[in-house]
Amino acid sequence: MRAASLLALTTATLLAATGVATAHEAGWRQTGHTTVENRISGEGLTTLRLPGHAPELVYRNGATIPQPLKDEGWGHVGDPDSLRGYLFDVYQDTRTPAPATKMYLVTRPDGTTTEFVHPLQPDEPAANANAQVAVTPDGQWLVSGPLGEIDRLYVSPAPFLNPRGPKAAGDLPVAARIHLDHHIRSAQGCDFVGATRLICATSDPYNDLYPTNLQLLQIDLARPLTGRDVTAKVREIGQVPLVSTCTGTFTPEGVDYDAGVLRVEVVPPSPCNTVTDVYSFERR
């Protein structure tokens, strides 16, 4: 069994020597843990708040992709996000060897869905182009990014919520880019925890970019998003929990933040990967 140090956020001295954030600096403490069957989980999660309904945790994996979308070639779904009853899903084309598009599926509070298919721009990687999406707390912008090693994230107007965003099926254009001061690799899930701060979980298996692998990263924007390019500082705040009776490869996945609670999905090694571990954290 490989034990983590509660996201390496509860051991104040663990990362101090490397310059990575300590527990006090990071300001998070683990408050809970649950498991979810991997028939519905393992690619992402978000809290959906529909008017007149209790909050609902929505999970994503390959089995949750509607068959009509699979028939169109959208065979992979990433980490979703939700705000004001709107649900934002990100899809990748798995049928084409060199995809030229990626897709955002928006589900409105009344349950109707709209596909926004975006032609990839020259600086948008084709492989694994839509790994996660995060909506800004003001509901105006979507931030998404691919897997692989990257130095930027992509900003688009949020459909239906931003007056600049599309309200009918079509392209969801890139309005701006977030230029990172430090490369990140394989960010599987991200969410905003404030107007200018994202928390992302990676499945980066190496420690050449940061002192540990499988990092939890904090991305601080220079200013709130307005549809113009912005710079951002990246720092590692620890390693995701790696706790299992099975040994092997752990895979961090989705990240959700709602009502002060940060949730991080981690898929344990086989054969324990019949469930997804979901760890909860709150600010100190």
How would the blueprint of this fold be written?
Layout: H1 23-26, E1 28-37, E2 44-48, E3 56-60, H2 67-72, E4 74-77, E5 81-83, E6 86-93, E7 101-107, E8 113-119, E9 132-135, E10 141-145, E11 149-157, E12 176-185, E13 187-194, E14 197-202, E15 215-221, E16 230-239, E17 251-258, E18 261-267, E19 275-283
Question: What's the average pLDDT?
Answer: 91
Please tally the helical runs, counting DSSP H or I stretches of 4 or more residues.
2
How many beta-strand runs?
19
Unreliable stretches covering 5 or more consecutive residues: 1-25
Helix content: under 10%
Report the radius of gyration as a whole number of Å.
18 Å
The proportion of residues in beta strands is: over 45%
Distance between the termini: 28 Å
The SSE order reads HEEEHEEEEEEEEEEEEEEEE
